[in-house]
Write a structure and sequence with these properties.
The structure is a homotetramer.
Chain A (H helix, E strand, L loop, with lengths): L1 E4 L5 H13 L3 E6 L4 E6 L7 H6 L3 E5 L19 E3 L2 E3 L5 E5 L6 H13 L4 E3 L17 H14 L3 E5 L13 E4 L7 H8 L5 E4 L6 H12 L6 E5 L16 H9 L4 E3 L1 H5 L5 H10 L4 E5 L17 H18 L1
Parallel strand pairs in A: 7-8, 7-14, 8-9, 9-10, 10-11, 11-12, 12-13, 13-14
Antiparallel strand pairs in A: 1-3, 1-4, 2-3, 5-6
Helix pairs in contact in A: 3-4, 5-6, 9-10
Chain lengths: ~325, ~325, ~325, ~325
Amino acid sequence: MIAVLKEGTTQAQMDHLVSWLKHMNLDVHISKGAEVTILGLIGDTSRVDIDLLKSLDMVETVKRVSEPFKQANRKFHPRDTIVEIGNVRIGSGYFAMIAGPCSVESEEQIIEVAMAVKASGANILRGGAFKPRTSPYAFQGMKGAGIELLLEAKKATGLPIVTEIMNISTLDLFADVDIIQVGARNMQNFDLLKELGKTKKPILLKRGLANTLQELLMSAEYIMSEGNEQIILCERGIRTFETATRNTLDLSAVSVLHNLSHLPVVVDPSHATGKASLVPPMAYAATAAGADGLMIEVHNNPACALCDGAQSLTPHQFDEVSHRVQRIREVIA
Amino acid sequence: MIAVLKEGTTQAQMDHLVSWLKHMNLDVHISKGAEVTILGLIGDTSRVDIDLLKSLDMVETVKRVSEPFKQANRKFHPRDTIVEIGNVRIGSGYFAMIAGPCSVESEEQIIEVAMAVKASGANILRGGAFKPRTSPYAFQGMKGAGIELLLEAKKATGLPIVTEIMNISTLDLFADVDIIQVGARNMQNFDLLKELGKTKKPILLKRGLANTLQELLMSAEYIMSEGNEQIILCERGIRTFETATRNTLDLSAVSVLHNLSHLPVVVDPSHATGKASLVPPMAYAATAAGADGLMIEVHNNPACALCDGAQSLTPHQFDEVSHRVQRIREVIA
Amino acid sequence: MIAVLKEGTTQAQMDHLVSWLKHMNLDVHISKGAEVTILGLIGDTSRVDIDLLKSLDMVETVKRVSEPFKQANRKFHPRDTIVEIGNVRIGSGYFAMIAGPCSVESEEQIIEVAMAVKASGANILRGGAFKPRTSPYAFQGMKGAGIELLLEAKKATGLPIVTEIMNISTLDLFADVDIIQVGARNMQNFDLLKELGKTKKPILLKRGLANTLQELLMSAEYIMSEGNEQIILCERGIRTFETATRNTLDLSAVSVLHNLSHLPVVVDPSHATGKASLVPPMAYAATAAGADGLMIEVHNNPACALCDGAQSLTPHQFDEVSHRVQRIREVIA
Amino acid sequence: MIAVLKEGTTQAQMDHLVSWLKHMNLDVHISKGAEVTILGLIGDTSRVDIDLLKSLDMVETVKRVSEPFKQANRKFHPRDTIVEIGNVRIGSGYFAMIAGPCSVESEEQIIEVAMAVKASGANILRGGAFKPRTSPYAFQGMKGAGIELLLEAKKATGLPIVTEIMNISTLDLFADVDIIQVGARNMQNFDLLKELGKTKKPILLKRGLANTLQELLMSAEYIMSEGNEQIILCERGIRTFETATRNTLDLSAVSVLHNLSHLPVVVDPSHATGKASLVPPMAYAATAAGADGLMIEVHNNPACALCDGAQSLTPHQFDEVSHRVQRIREVIA
């Protein structure tokens, strides 16, 4: 970490600062220039509050040289992490094709969709049981009963399942869930992250709507710092001024995260775009960008003709997406 | 709510949609134009999933006419809500001057600051006990012991206290806290909001870093829908591309929220700007914009000369801010 | 266009509004509901100032049903526009592989790069002669002399050329340029757009750093309204809070623009990311997302080893990108 | 400027870089640490392309210590600039109350408004003659004839006038205009800025919709680098995800700009919010934040009852705003 001091900083002020930094077990390397003085801070700077340092009157600017995350950092763990769920692997060339309905609605629905997506190449089943909704009046999911139905579908198809947790007090219900999802709105629910770090479950961690990639990795670090290293990062769109899509899918995130971290990265084009017609092109784009997997909503509700056109694909549409994704993977391999 | 159907929608498709909407207990008023057909949805549309409706192939666009929040809505509750904490009132002309240190550090510190800010006109004491930190390696606050010290300061000064909750499992520790704060990162932790709705405590609800004002009101609605109507909204800056300040304080939020809702609105210039020198002008601006209160960080640490210049004001600086704020209030009254 | 009037609007106010709208040659269809009154405006609403309408006290909300752009609108021009430059076509399955250096520096440089990228499959040569720079002290390009060198490279290779205009007073220098580029910072330089609309040159129009896709199409409309329909739209990244990349490449823009408009869409991954290592994955992703072309910076400067690693690819790297792009095009065809 | 080199950079690579930097007339101070090497670049770094430097493979990070703007920089010009227009001064305690209609419409209109706002304390008259409009089909202003009418109003009232230029080819029409405005969309129309730098006219430079404050100052620098130092900066709202207001007024900009630069800063609450009811509170807030002036739309059109409620204030509303603004100025003086 480098701190640049302002012109006019007195020796006494600088001594104060240096002694304070040394109290944090940092070595301080001082380089006095004509106009500015540069302090190089050496040691474990992940504990230094960069905002506090920046806010000091004598400090012109502060710049981290090393990232504040350690366990998630590729520098200290050069080989790709491979998350394993039974026979399914994610990362380092292993691809997760996660598909299923937005919400679990009935046994018939979830089993039918599960069988369809499995036949088309999905290797993990998704389905919402606890649903975070902006409005308290909206449907909040089938909750525990929804997880039961997912487990039925798992039994019927052999597909491992992923579903979202909103509250650590419900953890017991997730005992047989294969991957626990942390939603965008909980990406910085630090207490939830710490508790999930104490489990041995793989965690699918979604990027918050307005979080930087470094913050996503710091949230992964919260989980890892408690001992759980089985983390799958998920890009799902960020909030911008553009209104033509629900969110703006940031596909550069895939490469940036691969450069910074060893953790696998999957992309959710369904939530990001909010429109079924945009899901296939964004699924192809995410694959071409090097994603380690996709998370795609698929429904199967012949009784509800209305739902055609929603952000979910039909099993037939998913089948085509799945096959083209496979061919794109071959091109970029 | 108005839904505009695309040109070329068949009668059968429209019938399907209308029958689905009627199942949700809505009346549907159909207006056929030359190019488009407009459906007016009448009834309780707060339960309608606008995103689902928008995503239907036959739907060109959907527009809410009435807001999705009800209990927080000024239309149904024209008079200002006044939140009462002992002798202190907030809203409708009553002003909350909330001041105190970022984090509670020691009994001496918190009592000294509390006495100083009280002498300068503060009527509520703030202080962080549970600290949400981006890094798991950063200081996470004194937790329960911090709340104990706040209660000591309350006893010494008579000031009611506000402090942040991060996890509903710690609620017991807040039994004597006067106002419970929900931080920006938990604004959409819906399970936490629901549980706080079951308490009788006033809640200070901070706007998320990238949340719209309507979303802030929907989060207030979560709390209110469980029976707790004592809510103070707090603007604390949003995330933009600008890097000269930590966040961009959105002062238009004050008037917009006052127009949409009857709840009081306070502003936190300390977190928004991250720099002490920007706190006074933004405190004056927030007051002039019509805020019902301010939340300002004040420290008192003569032993740590380093801290001068951080985002906290000294008691002396706060004293001047407090007096000018009072004079600006008189101008805009 | 639909305008929803507030509850409590008087008949006299509404009559005023309706007569004002009729003065703009619009038919007004009035639908009175229990709580709101809806006005359907029929006719050429592209001339209606939606902001003014929204700002009226009696108006609750206004919503466009038809887009404000006409000539760029796919609804009125369902078939893809194909821009033709000599033998090169762009759009509707024809792919533009545009490559070349950021800035033209010397005859040797531009001809060498042009020959290299042509050999790798590029069909259009790019090179900056007029350079928009944030700082007045930065190199502003070779200007007219740079265009001369591009024309030399065109003669040597047969590749058509594209280069940026910053000021209509320099139009004469572009007489033999094949495609004139309008940069992101000039996307809403409306006087420049109008003048370019009077030429017969194909225009490559880049999206502004914080412009919506509708605004991009309105800027295309400015050019088209003067008679020039040869427009290529270009996505080059938007500004967000993320700092890991220079801008956030919005690849959903490709499909959204294809849905709204008949104009071809190319993507510039070099400027968006600002880092050579991110260019190949984003070039693949853009292709998989359905782009009609790519615009990639390639340099060839063996004397300046420093430049390795900048946002430009080497000819060797470009060769690999070009071939994989071709294979991805086959997969999504 | 500081450049941090990556671990593993070879001596040969570093020598290359250092020699390249020295060619730009910079001194390079090398500080080798255990893990990183830091280069301190001393000299005129305003010509260094920071993006190019950052993009080099061997470079971990680059940080400017000194700002890239010089003539606009308070460090080199500690005293406030006071812009003088006849008897009117702006900056360093002198306040500009700029008021007038959005667009000039008729002689009667502009003179009536001018007399009204003068009576209420305005000291500069605004009015749009050339109007930048998103749509080519919208009214583009009265152009030259509008400037003639502004000059009539100036003659009638003695108020100096400010109006927007969109195209340098119209400069002759501005011969008697007192202040030339550069609109948000032209903030980075660098050729226009350079030409305005060659005039002796005061320039009111509006911040672009998605530009940083540093970029605003760099655009001021473009004008100043050609010899014109009479610049008034204007904050008018930035684009964010919030939809309740047209833009988000960034009032921290006032203090940040005052810290970085000696140029006066005015605020335009009318365009930022787009709603008359938000103009008074934001005008008060801007004043309390320390602005050197306000720019407020005022109309006077008794024949058009429709316009009540638009973003413009009536003369009566403006009168109240003007008086309260004066009182707030006294509080913060």
